[in-house]
Amino acid sequence: MSLGIREEELFEVHDMQIEVGDSLYFMTDGLTDLLDGTGDLPLSQYPEMVAILREWSKAPQLDAYDSL
Q: Which of 12, 45, 52, 62 has its CA 20 to 30 A from that of 38?
């Protein structure tokens, strides 16, 4: 969705309480597409998860997003 660009776009809003020590991963839709079909990820191990996301960001299938 083109958040902030298209006035007619609909989206959900949720509140979430975060606490010291929580990890948040903000990803593009391309990276979230790569999550489909993955097994267990080390979500609670921040350095390991960031390393995985950095590696995924080099995936050839993300090149298609460059042309949008």
A: 12
CB 9 within 8 A of CB 1: yes
Report the sign of the C-alpha dihedral through residues 16, 19, 25, 28, in that order: positive
Contact 8, 28 (CB under 8 A): no
pLDDT, tens digit, 9 for 90 and up, residues 39-54: 788 888 889 988 988 8
Which residues, other chains included, contact 52 with Cβ-Cβ below 8 Å and sequence gap of 6+? 41, 42
- The runs of H, that is alpha helices, within the chain are 29-35, 46-56, 63-66
The C-alpha atoms of residue 46 and residue 1 are separated, in whole angstroms, by 28
